[in-house]
Amino acid sequence: MMKFNTPKMFGGSYEDALKNFSKAVLIYEKSGGNPPWGYAEALVWMGRTYEKLSEYQNALLSYKRALIVEPEYEWVKNHLLPSLEKRIKEEGL
């Protein structure tokens, strides 16, 4: 989160944030789902990072994976995913 939210001039980096979120997702998946908290959030932040890096299809997949884990995740379901789908459609991506 720190790398995602910190301005680049102060050490922030979307690339580093993506590595960290991806690692968190991988660790969770290798653990067999224990502990059960944090997985959907890591997927969401991974998706947000992909969006910042203009990797819209990867962002879309991350958001959809988060909804598989937590189908009623309101932020993803009602804001992030519809907004991204609209952007992809409008820009023909």
Amino- and carboxy-terminal Cα gap: 27 Å
Helical proportion, percent range: over 70%
List unreliable stretches of 5+ residues: none
- Number of DSSP-assigned strands: 0
The portion of residues forming beta strands comes to under 5%
Largest sheet geometry: none
Number of helices: 5
Helix-and-strand structural type: mainly alpha
- The CATH class of the domain at 16-27 and 34-76: Mainly Alpha
Name the CATH homologous superfamily of the domain at 16-27 and 34-76.
Tetratricopeptide repeat domain
Mean pLDDT level? 93
Rg estimate, integer Å: 13 Å
Oligomer: single chain
The CATH architecture name of the domain at 16-27 and 34-76 reads Alpha Horseshoe
Shape: globular
CATH topology title of the domain at 16-27 and 34-76: Serine Threonine Protein Phosphatase 5, Tetratricopeptide repeat
H/E order of the elements? HHHHH
Describe the structure.
There is one protein chain. With 93 residues, the protein is mainly alpha-helical. The protein has a domain at 16-27 and 34-76: Tetratricopeptide repeat domain (Serine Threonine Protein Phosphatase 5, Tetratricopeptide repeat, Alpha Horseshoe), CATH 1.25.40. It has five helices and no strands. Helix 2 packs antiparallel against helix 3 (39-52) and helix 3 (39-52) runs antiparallel to helix 4. The longest helix has 18 residues, at 74-91. It is globular, with a radius of gyration of 13 Å.
Describe what is shown at a glance.
The chain has 93 residues and is mostly helical. The protein is built from 5 helices and no strands. Helix 3 packs antiparallel against helix 4.
